[in-house]
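User: Predict the structure for this protein chain, please.
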Amino acid sequence: MNKKVITRIILALAVYGIFVLLVISFYDDSPDKMQWKDRESYNRQFIAKLQLEQFTFEQAILELGSPDITEARKVAEDRFQVMFYRTQHVKSDGITTQDECTFLLFVNGVLKEIGLGDNYPEEWQIIKNHQ
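Assistant: Here is the predicted structure, written as structure tokens:
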């Protein structure tokens, strides 16, 4: 093989390697920066892998970013935080509603329940009745 061709191949591989390193180092791939379709898919896939009582509120913020909707209550000594993450598109109106989301219920910072947003009002009644 010609020495010139080999040099060009090595140079191209070096430039490609530098490009890959720069992308890995500087590209911010947080869920907050994703397009809504990509974020829905990411949220669905990530939430499907969660295990109850093995995931914390802090991990949710770190891995899933800010929730689309959130509510919190303190009942006696227990802190209840419900975070809604958009996982299914329903209506193109520019507004995210609970029926387009999956909720994560945290009690004292630990994941206790996962469910579809349209089931949420019943679940929140359980919390309200906890008083």
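Residues 3-26 form the longest helix (24 residues).
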